[in-house]
């Protein structure tokens, strides 16, 4: 038994060594295959730069801003006289026609004052007519007639004021619309002070958005330009068309911006109300056109700005000047006026590849956008 065990051990050792050599050879082959696949994946010939056409277009054909919707016709409702509140005839959100009564005040004193002045006026008017008759017959001095006329004129003025005082006890709305605000302090039987605000009414049929403009924008906006108004809602945006109604003649001293008013009809009176925010795009069809490239086409090297034009499928570095910038687009012009940019292609990616920098890269036509 001992001699058999001695013979098995060398054989097992040889078998184990053979398996190890086979496994190591297999691992080496796998590693070689992985390296070959990685080299193919990082082949620089697969990294082809993209190019787009250089275009001539308006860089600022739209002025975009945000504002708050308000009514073209709004009115602050105030009391013109003081008195005790006798009735309140309006509610928040209610629709009212022009001239509708909102609130009435106690008019007892005002009515008594009016009747007293009417009686005094009639008495003094009769006295004036009698004195005019006497004066025509030479039985009355001119100064007596003049005094009688002055008294009647004074009573006429007081009579107008008294009638206004009675009318002012009935507060009415000057426009049709819906109640946007109602004072919380309106209580029947309370004293209302003259000039107190009782509410605000807004005509929602025609709306307006006020947009702030910067100095670079105000030159491009004028009255009559069309505009697009977009109102976001939980169920989707409501889009409608409007027009620039007015542009302020001066800037706001607090903000330094100018104000543009954009008017538009309300496309959804049940949804769009005063106070909502809206995005406005003012369309300027007459905006000047420039040579425009994407921002990604610009390279900045040694303090200079340049682009890579594609000449016969070879990148050529061309120095340019920046004219204007809007969003992700930039208006440019060549430093050398003899160079024509329009109609050419410009690289927008791979600008730092060795072949591009050296000018030795060759670009296939199939990779050029819009070609």
Tell me briefly what this model is.
The protein has 371 residues and is of the alpha+beta class. It is built from five helices and 20 strands.
CATH topology of the domain at 51-57 and 288-367: conserved putative lor/sdh protein from methanococcus maripaludis s2 fold
Task: State the total count of DSSP E strands.
Answer: 20
CATH class of the domain at 51-57 and 288-367: Mainly Beta
The major sheet is characterized as: 8 strands, antiparallel
Q: Element order, helices and strands?
A: HEEEEEEHHEEEEHEEEEEEEEEEH
Helix and strand composition category: alpha+beta
Rounded average pLDDT: 82
Strand content: 35-45%
Number of helices: 5
CATH architecture of the domain at 51-57 and 288-367: Beta Barrel
Distance between the termini: 87 Å
The gyration radius over C-alpha positions equals 43 Å
Low-confidence stretches: 1-47, 366-371
Shape: elongated
- Identify the quaternary structure here: single chain
Helix content: 25-40%
Question: Could you walk me through the main structural features you see in this protein, from its secondary elements to its overall organization?
Answer:
By secondary structure, the protein is α+β, with helices and mostly antiparallel strands. Among the domains are: 51-57 and 288-367, conserved putative lor/sdh protein from methanococcus maripaludis s2 fold (Beta Barrel), CATH 2.40.420.20; 64-70 and 206-283, Efflux pump adaptor protein, beta barrel domain (Elongation Factor Tu (Ef-tu), domain 3, Beta Barrel), CATH 2.40.30.170; 107-168. It has helices spanning 2-41, 108-136, 142-167, 215-218, 354-358; strands spanning 51-53, 55-58, 62-78, 83-88, 95-96, 101-105, 170-172, 177-182, 191-192, 197-213, 226-231, 238-247, 258-265, 277-283, 289-294, 299-301, 304-311, 314-326, 329-334, 345-347. The strands form three sheets. Strands 1, 2, 15, 16, 17, 18, 19 and 20 form an eight-stranded antiparallel β-sheet that branches. It has a six-stranded antiparallel beta barrel with strand order 3-10-13-12-11-14. Strands 7-6-4-9 form a four-stranded antiparallel β-sheet, with no helix packed on it. A hairpin with a 2-residue loop joins strand 18 and strand 19. Helix 2 (108-136) runs antiparallel to helix 3.
């Amino acid at each position: 038994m001992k001699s058999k065990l001695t013979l098995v051990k060398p054989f097992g050792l040889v078998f184990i060594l053979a398996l190890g050599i086979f496994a190591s050879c297999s691992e080496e082959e796998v590693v070689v295959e992985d390296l070959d696949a990685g080299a193919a994946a990082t082949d620089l010939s697969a990294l082809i730069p993209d190019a787009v056409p250089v275009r001539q277009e308006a860089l600022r054909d739209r002025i975009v801003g945000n504002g708050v919707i308000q009514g073209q016709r709004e009115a602050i409702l105030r009391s013109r006289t003081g008195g005790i509140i006798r009735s309140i005839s309006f509610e928040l959100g209610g629709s009212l026609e022009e001239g509708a009564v909102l609130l009435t005040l106690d008019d007892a004193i005002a009515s008594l004052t009016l009747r007293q002045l009417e009686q005094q006026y009639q008495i003094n008017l009769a006295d004036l007519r009698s004195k005019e008759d006497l004066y025509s017959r030479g039985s009355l001095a001119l100064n007596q007639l003049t005094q009688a006329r002055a008294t009647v004129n004074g009573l006429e003025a007081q009579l107008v004021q008294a009638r206004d005082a009675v009318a002012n006890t009935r507060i009415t709305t000057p426009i049709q619309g819906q109640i946007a605000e109602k004072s919380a302090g309106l209580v029947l039987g309370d004293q209302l002070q003259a000039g107190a605000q009782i509410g605000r009414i807004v005509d929602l049929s025609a709306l307006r958005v006020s947009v702030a403009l910067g100095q670079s924008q105000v030159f491009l906006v004028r009255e009559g330009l069309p505009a697009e108004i977009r109102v976001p809602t939980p169920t989707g945006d409501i889009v409608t068309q409007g027009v620039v109604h007015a542009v302020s003649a001066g800037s706001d001293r607090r903000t330094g911006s100018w104000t543009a008013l954009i008017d538009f009809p309300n496309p959804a009176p049940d949804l769009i109300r005063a106070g909502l925010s809206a995005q406005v795009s003012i369309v300027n069809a007459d905006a000047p056109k420039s040579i425009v490239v994407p921002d990604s086409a610009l390279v900045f090297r040694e303090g200079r700005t340049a682009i890579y034009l594609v000449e016969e499928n070879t990148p050529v570095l061309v120095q340019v000047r920046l004219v204007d910038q809007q969003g992700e687009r930039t208006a440019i012009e060549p430093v050398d006026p003899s160079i024509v940019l329009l109609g050419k292609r410009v690289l927008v990616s791979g600008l730092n590849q060795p072949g591009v920098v050296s000018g030795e890269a060759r670009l296939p036509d199939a990779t050029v956008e819009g070609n």
